[in-house]
Design goal:
Layout lengths: L1 H14 L5 H10 L6 H11 L1 E5 L5 E5 L9 H10 E7 L2 E6 L4 H10 L5 E6 L3 E6 L5 H13 L2
Antiparallel strand pairs: 1-2, 3-4, 4-6, 5-6
């Protein structure tokens, strides 16, 4: 639920000028998430959100421009806790996630900077990954499978 909520937070701050935690709580509740201000405060810290000046002259939450992009335990944890299955065909890998978690898992995959990954498309519970060459698919599937099985 946390990853789904945090993914929704990223979506909301991308599509709305969210100036306060109260506004974020209201938008999340409107989207079906029952949250408290304390929960939102923790999410903002975990997501490393910052306030930047918006076009209207007021401050709004955004993703930090200085956010680190290397493989971190946070990305591995997101991936591991949200992925249900991985399957491949040709140069395509299809990743099934928990409902509402595909965007968060795709963001984790994108931030892991796999060299042969051309791009990803995420829905609600499915991610499609396009790999540069079918020969590079099995090692990537094996790597995903190993990450999922880590304890």
């Amino acid at each position: 639920m946390r990853y789904s909520r945090q993914n929704k937070i990223l979506d909301l701050i991308h599509n709305h000028d969210v100036e306060t935690q109260d506004k974020l709580v209201a938008l999340l509740k409107k989207s079906g998430y029952q949250v408290t201000q304390a929960t939102i405060s923790r999410d903002i810290k975990e997501l490393q959100l910052v306030k930047t000046l918006a076009a209207n002259g007021r401050y709004k939450y955004t993703i930090s421009a200085h956010q680190e992009q290397p493989l971190t335990e946070r990305f591995v944890t997101i991936f591991k806790e949200t992925i249900k299955s991985v399957a491949a065909s040709g140069n395509i890998i299809v990743v099934k996630t928990l409902s509402g978690c595909a965007n968060a898992a795709a963001e984790a995959i994108d931030n892991m900077n796999f060299p042969n990954l051309i791009g990803s498309i995420a829905g609600d519970n499915t991610i499609m990954l396009v790999i540069d060459d079918p020969a590079n698919v099995p090692p990537l599937v094996a790597q995903f499978t190993e990450m999922i099985s880590r304890s």
